[in-house]
Structures are given as C-alpha cells and as structure tokens.
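Please fill in the sequence for the structure shown.

STRUCTURE ENCODING:
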C-alpha cells in the first residue's frame, strides 16, 4: 500500500459534515459516475449490488475506461474523508455486466484492516478531498481477456454497521507473459456480504473475512484486527453475492474457480494495445491495422466453447435468426430459439443469446465496439470505425 501523508485527523466522534462525506471509489472509474453518491448500501439491502439506481450501469466516458492487463499492479483509490476508522475491504470480479442479487462474485484480493485508511476516526477535508491512502490489486492470469464488472466492498470499523459497495466496468487485456504460458487455475471465494442481510459485523474491530482468498493485505494496526477465531458477523444472513446463508457463529464461504463463474453476459474481448502506465486511464488505445488479428475469449479459465470472437475487421453476416422471418439482420428477438448457444447481433449495436431454448434479454455492446449483425455460433466483435477512419478509407479508394 502506498501512502502520501497530508493532514490527517483522528476523530473519535463523527461530525455531521463528515457523515455526509463518505467514500467513493475514484479508480477504477465506477459505473454511473454522475449518479453515484457516497452513502453506504441501504440497510435492507434493496440497492445491492452496486447501489441500484437510475443509470447504475452507465459506462464511463471513452477516455475514462478501465483497461487492465493481467498480472500488472493496478491502483485502487478513493475520494472523501469519512473513512470511519478504516476497516476491511475486498475487490471482486464477475463477468455479469449488469450484476443482480443472484450474481456470483469472485474475490481476487482482501484487505483486512486499514482500508480505505489507517486512522482512528476520519480524515480532514470535505467530500471532494482525495483519500491519501492508495491500494493496489492485480488481475490474476487465469482470467481471460474480456469485459468484467469489478466491485469494491468495505466494512467500516467505527460507526453504524454499514456495507459500502461501488462497481466499475473493466476490460481485461491478456499479458504478453500469459500468451506464452498456460495460467494455473485458481479457486476464488465468494463475496462477503453483511450489515444489509441480517448478519451484523462487530464495531471497533477490523473484521477478518471468513474466506479472504489467497491474496490478503494487512494495512491496519494489529491491535484492531479481530481475533482469528472471531465470527465476521452475527445473525442469520440472506444468501447474496454467491455465498450461502449461514449463522454467524460458524460463518463459512464457498469458493469458485475461474472455470465455474456463471454470468448472464458474455465476455467481450477487444484486440488492443495499451500505453505502459496502467494507472492513467487516458492512455491511448490503438488497434493493429493489418493483417486482421483475431482472438477468442471464453470463460475466465480459457475454455473456448461458445466463445466470443474478436477481430479488427468485420465479416459479412449470412445467417438470420431462426425465430425471425426473411433476411433481416436487426430487431430484438423474443420467444423460442434454436440452435442452443447461438448468438444474435442486432444491427451491430446489441446482442442476445439462445439459452435454455429462449432468447435472453437484449444487451448493448460495450462502448466503442460493434458486433457482426445476424445469428451465428460465435459472436464476432470489432472496434467501431470512427468517421475519420471512414473518410480516410474513402480517400484511399478514390486514390
């Protein structure tokens, strides 16, 4: 953890202004940035996950997109001053691009103590003050290239028993090292959920997660960390986040491997190259000109069945939806479908899949990408051409 020290106030009593200056994830850039406030999740869990609201899954602007290479350290930082004496946090991933209460999350790193700050009370400043404490995480190599939702969750040490959760869309890029070797499969624990589901954490201590995973960082004071045999929360919890409901006295958590994660949205891999600094989201993203390079992204374990194919050129679509008539390559499909597992691209801007004999709800393509219109066994994704690119192409044809 990196720490640059401005003025820090250790306050045991939270002032009214501080209560209104809770924390917001600054990086990775979150979903729905313009509508995201700094309050905790509702006590009844009604806005779990990701602080449900209008615009909850709006993507960041193109120059704020989160592109992360596997195996490379990434920055996690925050804005705000009401750190409530720190606490414990987790970073989790899912391939579901619009997570729900049924979404299964995989924890890739746990911070037990000192997150989002290692102080007695709160920081000095206001709601727009950057948190001087900076954290790091790494996308494991056994997560395939593609789109994911990242979640930061936090259980504060001091004050009302609350759970904070911000979510962000990220695009994972395969590292050069990963291309040369097969990544080892790893099991990841389910997301820990408390204070919104009938199971309550203990105030005054940095909780130990019942199953923190293999990557754990301790950033707080040892004297504040809960005993190794202490329950993370007390009460009977509702099963959210992929874990089973349990009594707190024997809190347990299940794990899933990267191969087992289930999502309602496919992974969309984009053939890109990113500037060396992974911290600067404004880094230029370019594509290879020619020849067209194609990559295939399956589930995080690298299996290629029913994969999503990405290319820098767009192939001509010849198939049409089995449940539609004529040769139209646009429109949202409903009802029965076949063959099972096939994809439907609606005019290049949205997609559906034939799952369990019916078409799934339509989902928009990731910003800056298009799919090849029509029905096919693979969903072919391309980077959207800009008007400038089209003008250049016309000039070349004229020449």
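FILLED IN BY: designer on duty
SEQUENCE:
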């Amino acid at each position: 953890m990196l720490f640059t020290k401005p003025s820090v106030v250790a306050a045991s009593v939270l002032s009214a202004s501080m209560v209104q200056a809770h924390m917001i994830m600054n990086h990775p850039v979150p979903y729905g940035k313009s509508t995201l406030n700094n309050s905790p999740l509702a006590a009844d869990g009604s806005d779990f996950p990701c602080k449900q609201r209008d615009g909850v899954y709006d993507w960041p602007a193109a120059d704020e997109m989160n592109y992360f290479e596997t195996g490379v350290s990434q920055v996690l930082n925050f804005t705000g001053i009401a750190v409530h004496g720190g606490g414990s946090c987790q970073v989790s991933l899912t391939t579901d691009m619009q997570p729900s209460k049924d979404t299964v999350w995989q924890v890739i790193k746990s911070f037990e103590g000192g997150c989002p700050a290692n102080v007695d009370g709160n920081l000095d400043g206001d709601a727009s003050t950057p948190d001087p404490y900076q954290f790091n995480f790494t996308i494991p190599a056994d997560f395939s290239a593609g789109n994911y939702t990242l979640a930061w969750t936090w259980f504060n040490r001091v004050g009302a028993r609350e759970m904070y959760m911000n979510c962000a869309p990220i695009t994972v890029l395969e590292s050069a090292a990963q291309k040369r070797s097969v990544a080892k499969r790893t099991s990841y624990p389910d997301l820990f959920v408390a204070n919104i589901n009938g199971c309550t954490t203990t105030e005054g201590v940095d909780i130990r997660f019942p199953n923190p995973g293999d990557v754990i960082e301790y950033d707080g004071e040892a004297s504040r960390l809960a005993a190794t045999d202490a329950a993370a929360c007390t009460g009977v919890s509702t099963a959210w986040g992929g874990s089973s409901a349990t009594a707190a006295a024997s809190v347990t958590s299940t794990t899933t491997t990267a191969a087992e994660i289930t999502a309602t949205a496919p992974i969309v891999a984009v053939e890109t190259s990113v500037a060396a600094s992974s911290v600067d989201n404004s880094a230029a993203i370019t594509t290879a000109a020619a020849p067209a390079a194609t990559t295939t992204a399956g589930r995080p374990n690298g299996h290629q069945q029913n994969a999503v194919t990405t290319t820098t050129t767009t192939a001509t679509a010849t198939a049409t939806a089995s449940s539609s008539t004529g040769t139209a390559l646009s429109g949202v499909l409903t009802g029965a479908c076949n063959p099972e597992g096939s994809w439907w691209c609606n005019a290049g801007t949205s997609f559906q899949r034939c799952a369990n004999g019916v078409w799934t709800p339509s989902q928009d393509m990731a910003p800056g990408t298009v799919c090849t219109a029509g029905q096919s066994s693979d969903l072919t994704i391309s980077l959207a051409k800009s008007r400038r690119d089209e003008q250049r192409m016309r000039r070349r044809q004229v020449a």
